[in-house]
Amino acid sequence: MPQVKTNPLPNGLYWIDLFSPTPSSPTTKEGPPIFHAWAKTNSGKVLVRRTEEFPEPAAMGGPRRTWILFEVVAPPGAFPFGLGYPTTATSLDEPSFYTPLPTTPDLADWLLGGANMIEGIALLWILYELTKGKR
């Protein structure tokens, strides 16, 4: 099941894992509200088919996980890839229990993404400054 990096997403069925902060992972991005705001903005184009909530993994102290199965039926607005890439689903009965965790953008895509261009340039400048005296 390949991840989809096309924006806007083409018509099809997808799933994505989203995460929420917990006391042990307070810096985690609040994924579900961002996704649901995107889906609401694209009402009639994006249909949420199923949502499953998972508690914080007690042994690992990680973030809460929300798995969402959704369908794109018409070209929506740009997907917020900062949440990760959606994965192509095979059916409405797609199980959530064996999906890989987490779905995250790769560094090159993040650095070159239009919405993150300034952040990418700033990160490169910081890395350059930190390594300047270590040659």
Description:
By secondary structure, this protein is of the alpha+beta class. Helix content is 24%, strand content 21%. The protein is built from three helices and four strands. It has a four-stranded antiparallel beta sheet with strand order 2-3-1-4, covered by helices on one side.
Keywords:
21% strand; 4-stranded antiparallel β-sheet; 135 residues; 3 helices; single chain; alpha+beta
SSE map:
Layout: E1 12-20, H1 31-41, E2 46-54, E3 64-72, E4 87-88, H2 107-112, H3 117-131
Antiparallel strand pairs: 1-3, 1-4, 2-3
**End-to-end CA span:** 43 Å
| Principal-axes shape call | globular
Low-confidence runs of at least 5 consecutive residues: none
Content of β-strand: 15-25%
Tell me the domain tally: 2
Report helical residue fraction: 10-25%
**Cα radius of gyration in angstroms:** 17 Å
Number of DSSP-assigned strands: 4
* Mean pLDDT across residues: 79
The arrangement of helices and strands along the chain is: EHEEEHH
Q: Which class do the helix and strand fractions yield?
A: alpha+beta
Summarize the structure.
The protein is an alpha+beta fold. Helix content is 24%, strand content 21%. The protein has 2 domains: 12-104; 105-135, no CATH class.
